[in-house]
Design goal:
The structure holds three protein chains of three kinds. Chain A has two helices and one strand; from the N terminus they run H-H-E. Chain A is mainly α. Chain A is rod-shaped. Chain B has a domain of 289 residues: Cytochrome C Oxidase, Chain A, CATH 1.20.210. Chain B has 17 helices and three strands. Classes of the chains: A mainly alpha, B mainly alpha, C alpha+beta.
Amino acid sequence: MSESNSSGENPHFMQKALDNQWLMLALAVLVPMVIYTFWGLWDVMHIVQAP
Amino acid sequence: MTSTSISDFRVDPVSGLKIHRTANTLVKWNAFAAVVFLLVGGLFGLGVALTRMPSVQLLSPDLFYMALTAHGLVNLAVWIIFFEMAVLYFLASHVLGSRIATPRWAWAQFWLMLVGAAMVAVAVLQGNSSVMMTSYPPLQAAPHFYLGLIVFAVGALIGCFVFLGTLVVAKRENTYQGSLPLVVFGGVTATVIAVFTLVSGAMILIPTFLWSVGLISYIDPMMYRVIWWAFGHSSQQINVVAHISIWYLIASLVFGAKPMSEKVSRGAFLLYILFLQLGSAHHLLSDPGLTSAWKIFNTSYAIYLAVLASMIHGLTVPGSIEVAQRRKGMNTGLFTWLRKAPWGNPIFSGMFLSLVGFGFIGGVTGVVMSVEQINMVIHNTMYLPGHFHGTLVAGTTMAFMAVTYWLIPVVFQRKIALPGVAKLQPYIFSLGAWVFSIAMMGAGTLGVQRRHADITFAGQPLAYEYPEIAKGLMDMGEIFGIIMSVGAIMFIVVVLASIFTGERIEEGSAPWPKVEDADVVAARTGNKHVGMWGMEAPGTFILAMILFATIVLYYFVNFKYLSTIWGLS
Amino acid sequence: MGTAYTPPEADWWRAPIERTEIWWIVLAFAWCVFMFVWMIGWHFVGPQNMSNETYRTTVEAYAAKVDAMTAKYAIRKDEATGEDVVAPPPGSDVYLAAMQWQFRPILELKKGEKYRLHISSYDVGHGFSLQPENINFQVYPGYEQVTTVTPNKTGIFAIACGEYCGGSGAIGHHSMLGRIYVKE
């Protein structure tokens, strides 16, 4: 099934993405920074004053 | 392009790896520093163990809290990160056959980390920084405590970029063709997670340092916790990625194993890159102010996708060993391949014990305890140190020890001294770590608090007495903690003896043959189709099903227990 | 050439996946989705959940609430320490404070009744740890967390501290205690 590309031409786009260490770096920093850090700080900053 | 002469490199005659001499020196120094810090941190740990043992209670409270802060920082951060720097240089340079990029920056990494660690050590030993490794405000440590951590982190960050830079050099100088080998991609995963970790550390430790010198008036405790744990737990996730990469490496070195599927293993690493850091939220499940939506999404690592990745590696690593063994002729029955594995070789035994210990003790308990609701009945009890000795000691440290036995002949060009001790060491260390972890988790389930200098609440009018069995578990657990220390000392003795007195391996002489690649053997002997029931790794599948059943059972047992306590909403 | 430390084949993403892995991935993924749904679902059907009700407060404001409750509902002196035991009525707001190095006031509650339990700290971070139930929450100064609790057993419950909070010698984090009596 994969013999037609065994010369290394036209790799799958996922293969190219995973081979790109700078893309991996961007994902590793940005995704948790938004989902964990920014969302978490948002929650903390929006706590209301006690009645 | 820098010109490098042939003598800048040597070739390891067994593995065939082309080794850059400068990179090799960096690996040696970082690995040696790591082992020295393992010893130092371990001695503090022994002090902690002997104090938490109800029948001994060795240290006074003040000394206990100081020793506990030191043990946490030195073993959790310093030993492990120095070792990881050595591993990163090995992966980028030795495995790819490339010169190391910017050696001067690499040395800056080493010295900054060493100076930073020393500053923190001085702060803690002076007695005014017993704030535990987590240093939560409003508790405040001395300024050089925070500054030391910052300097250490800057050093580590430099190391990460030297790694990434070396990958660029290797690609440009064509030292390998095609995609990176799987273990090096694991190194990329660890490194990019480390960058997030260290950036988060800078985000919180720099303001906290400024607070400790009076330039900032207030640090909000909840904001500190959210950001600190992005640093604190992600640093542990780096360890997971590093030890998984080491498992794959050892499987190939000892068995000639081939990854079952590059796509599956790398896809699992991608899930780590995206979602592993979210799990830091499990430290904040019992905290005020954070919504359950945030807690649930983050503690689950995004619908448990990073847990799926761990479960995948948990199958593909032993699976690759099974396939390799079957292709080399051990294709009968379900577990012949495992019975006939080299259990007397500490490189393999340490690696496999690390896999089992991390999976069954660290992994099962970790997945369950990080459920938002179950966390309420384990948070800040002895269950926590029990769990994380299962991941970090039975898992990561054991794997690092195992690979060291392979690295010493290659990097230091010395044979392992005291091979009898080395053979036993993984078993002693793992026995100590496994039983310690389980006993501590038992004591924690019965309510014993963590970070307590005195289990008896002596002299308190409202005194509470823990159940006798809880105290018994603490006694027994700490005895196995001592056994764990003995296992660590055995490792340190073998390493030092080998490095300084081990039989030298002359350059160019191969003291033993390289293990043949399993697919090469298969092509030669015709053993291409192996396994049973249409599966290439049926034995591993059974083992994975046992792990699966354990997780499911433990999950529901904990929910049953949770449902018996006071109503809470 | 096929090892984990040598480059993979050229078109590795398109290589087929072997059956052992496929079955395991499907099974593991199904369990992962189940765990996620169960954790959310327990919020709707489970009797024990984290509260999401939190307020910002100050030490002074919170202390005033504690003192007001104590003045109104103290019913006797505690046998062990001679301090007030406070018995707020079912359904009411109950204020507990953590401080270096005790939890106060000493409370008395009724089994089977609901109470809105507020917790906050007067100084550093502490950990509320109810024993032997083993219910654990973080407690911070400036933050007031409200949880509706329903004691389902009678007895004497201790509150230990789970978050390191300093101290020296015999008095400190490890000696920190509080108490809740639960009567019929």
